[in-house]
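User: Some background: our group keeps a shared notebook of sequences we're curious about, and every so often someone picks one and asks for a predicted structure to add to the entry. Today it's my turn. The entry only has the sequence so far, pasted here. Could you supply the structure so I can complete it?
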Amino acid sequence: MQLENTLRYIDEHMESAVSDLLDFLRIPSISTSSDHEADMRAAAEWVRTRLENLGFASRTYDTKRWPVVYGERCRVPGAPTLLVYGHYDVQPPEPLEEWISPPFEPAIRDGEIFARGANDDKGQFYTHILAVEALLAANEELPINVKFLVEGEEEIGSKNLAVFLKEFRELLKADAFVVSDSSQFAAGVPAVTYGLRGIACLQLEIQGAKFDLHSGLYGGVAPNAPQALADILASLKTPDGKVAIPGFYDRVLPLEDWERREMAALNLSTEDLADSIGAPGLIGESGYSPLERKTARPTLEINGVWGGFAGEGTKTVIPSKAGAKISMRLAPNQDPDEIFRLFEDYVDKVKPAAVTASVQRQFHASPVLVERDNRFVKTASEAIAKGFGRKPVFLRTGGSIPIVNLVKDQLGVEPLLILGWGRPENRSHSPNERFSLDDFRMGARSAAILIAELADSD
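Assistant: Of course. Here's the predicted structure to add to the notebook entry:
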């Protein structure tokens, strides 16, 4: 393999690669909204065409919602097969007024691309396409077999992906799986992620009277839905930061002593973390460090609350309805279905008798732990060290990537390479999302080295 020529190609073609990425980012592929059907299909076709132009046999597959893009270039009999995953859908950009530049008009400032999807996940995913392009430009063929699986529902729970994996299990067979949809530990400190939290998302709705009531005529006797909701939400946590739902922690796999030592050695201070998010301080479960709490311990967060009158002026009513969206991040061994059930049982127990409560389960993903001691993970670590010029750290991340446990459980692929090129401060899901051009370049270099060196690993 002409690895030096491959890396030189990446460095010399950064301008055109960034231009291509900007075109990709201009597509407002927001999977939550049916109003963006044309944009979603345009983004899928953009990916399919890009793979086809690189000599991949590629096509889109319709699902019950958004298309899946698949491409393969498998021309090296006996060589390992790498399955590369990405997602072309993005989060809604609101609140729009907080963006410095429009979310789908990508802008480059101070060496960073600002756009929705720049970090999550179009920018990170595109590094693998650039890596393949560079390898093919410098060599007659790829040294291993490569398959791409790119979906459009990651931001809404990948509900149809499980069906796709089951139906096309043979097509997707691989020796290893790689996804870049996470972060480095810090700027200039690359990472290999070996643990992901699971997730269970739900909506809680409270109903009091059949309709809103006059607060003067009915105050003191009628049930107030927002008040009932507030009481329930306040009861979900104890003063020391623990989730109060009985049984919530029963199956949590404790952190190993060596994990706690490694996390402590990373020296993430409370002050630095608070400063990085612009908060005066931190909260959380007592007995654990901030890094342990944000990556490896289970959590419960209120994502949104509504009910009653919130317009200008006053409206003296007793609201009949209120609701909240809640997400729970799960530690290894916790089962999303069991957590849903425990939450439902708890709400039924603590809700005021004068209201009704309903819980709608939305989406979930199981937690994942990756075996660190295998040749694919070791090769990935070595590739990152060469690509970034610094040995990566091993860490867990607090996020959830549904595809990872699906690949493990349904395809039986155990070497799971979770290699994030982004930075914690890149504002995924928030206004002014960004991706460093340096990280884009070094991520692509690392991805190319990984493919090259997987051919020689044993």
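Suggested note for the entry: The chain has a mean pLDDT of 95. Residues 127 and 444 are 4 Å apart (CA to CA).
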